[in-house]
Design goal:
Layout: E1 2-7, E2 12-20, E3 30-39, H1 51-73, E4 80-88, H2 92-109, E5 113-117, H3 118-124, E6 136-141, E7 146-151, E8 158-162, H4 168-178, H5 185-195, H6 218-229, H7 234-260, E9 264-268, H8 275-282, E10 287-289, H9 301-312
Parallel strand pairs: 1-4, 4-5, 6-9, 9-10
Antiparallel strand pairs: 1-2, 2-3, 6-7, 7-8
Helix pairs in contact: 1-2, 3-9, 4-5, 4-6, 4-7, 5-7, 6-7, 7-8
The structure holds adenosine-5'-triphosphate and fe (iii) ion.
Residues 118, 122, 142, 298 line the site of fe (iii) ion (FE).
EC number: 2.3.1.234
Main location: cytoplasm
GO molecular function: tRNA N(6)-L-threonylcarbamoyladenine synthase activity
Length: 333
């Protein structure tokens, strides 16, 4: 009845536990019982994630995060009925820690093990709020991805469009650093934007590329740099950039939903935590589903939810030799 999920794809050690209540997926069929995260701080001094340090930190912290998750859920390790862990994409050394830990745990408990795709985890994070019945469109907006998928049926992902340069979250992070607003940039920009004037800095809408539903954020980044050099106030820059980014994300997704004939859109990944983005999506005539609180940025519960979905779909468990992969496209249709 309990599925444990582990994510160690980057610099967060996440362990989550979900309870299967009925045969449905969420919101009534599954409940998040624990979602514990250790966010690594060692990287701050380098201004970026150091892969080798990330792996070592995961090794040191994973036992503790696991104990916290069991305590939060009020469970013993023997209560766990299935284990899922991210196998990619991500930093290979970091992924291996969680993947090996998960396999070992499943082996010791003699329960099924599922290797999970990180992006599928981000999408299934929304299963905390909705039963995610296909078909739907899924927009993953995170630190490394701005990908739009069509999901005609459970487990099928057709790539509709992606960014041809920076990911949306990456643009938030870079512009926040440029404007001296701190790290992580997403929340810092969102906060500064509340005080700024969104019309102060003009951002041109990125030109429509050859491919219909492609995104681009490097132009906004360059425009932000120029505005910053010209003396734009950080708060105004934040508000104006956020408005431009939200606009292009919502507009492109709406067009894709229309083209693919989808009424439901799942918006997930770290940037889905953004209030302005949520408000803009909620004003469309689409049925928009977001992950619940604490499930937007990397976490273990979203991997447990993906594992629960695999279990429910009757997917056969992953072989224990399943390895970690840095590059792993989700698209399979
Ligand atoms: P990926 O999943 O693509 O491998 P990741 O795991 O590093 O990348 P996530 O943890 O999903 O990414 O998301 C982190 C990103 O989300 C960061 O770029 C961060 O700035 C952004 N983010 C977090 N909160 C907000 C917010 N409130 N508004 C905008 N962006 C946000
Ligand atoms: Fe992520």
């Amino acid at each position: 009845r309990y599925v444990l999920g582990i994510d160690t794809s980057c610099d967060d050690t996440g362990v989550g536990i979900v309870e299967l209540i009925s045969s449905e997926l969420a919101p009534d069929g599954v409940r998040v019982r624990a979602n514990c995260i250790w966010t690594q701080t060692v990287h701050a001094q380098y201004g970026g994630v150091m892969p080798e340090l990330a792996s070592r930190e995961h090794v040191e912290r994973i036992d503790g995060v696991m104990a916290d998750a069991l305590a939060e859920a009020g469970l013993q390790v023997s209560d766990i009925g299935a284990v899922a862990a991210t196998s990619g994409p991500g930093l290979v050394g970091a992924l291996l820690v969680g993947l090996m830990y998960g396999k070992g745990l499943a082996q010791a408990l003699d329960v099924p093990f599922y290797a999970a795709h990180h992006l599928e985890g981000h999408i299934f994070a929304a299963a905390s709020e909705d039963n995610l019945e296909a078909p739907y469109l899924a927009l993953v907006v995170s630190g490394g991805h701005t990908h739009l998928f069509d999901v005609p049926e459970v487990g099928t992902y057709i790539l509709v469009g992606a960014t041809r340069d920076d990911a949306a979250g990456e643009a938030f992070d870079k512009i926040a650093r440029l404007a001296g607003l701190g790290y992580p940039g997403g929340p810092a920009i969102a906060e500064a934007a509340l005080r700024g004037d969104a019309t102060a800095v003009p951002f041109k809408e990125p030109l429509q590329g050859q491919k219909a539903f492609e995104f681009s954020f490097s132009g906004l980044k360059t425009a932000a740099l120029l505005a910053h050099k010209a003396g734009a106030k950080p708060d105004d820059l934040a508000a104006s950039f956020q408005r431009a980014a939200v606009h292009v994300l919502v507009k492109t997704t709406r067009r894709a939903a229309e083209a693919y004939g989808r009424q439901t859109v799942v918006v997930s990944g770290g940037v889905a935590a953004n209030t302005a983005l949520r408000e803009a999506f909620n004003q469309t005539n689409l049925r928009v589903v977001f992950p619940g609180k604490g499930l937007n940025t990397d976490n273990g519960a979203m991997i447990a939810l993906a594992g629960a979905a695999a279990l429910r779909a009757g997917r056969s468990p992953s072989p224990l030799e399943a390895g970690a992969t840095a590059y792993a496209p989700l698209a399979n249709g």
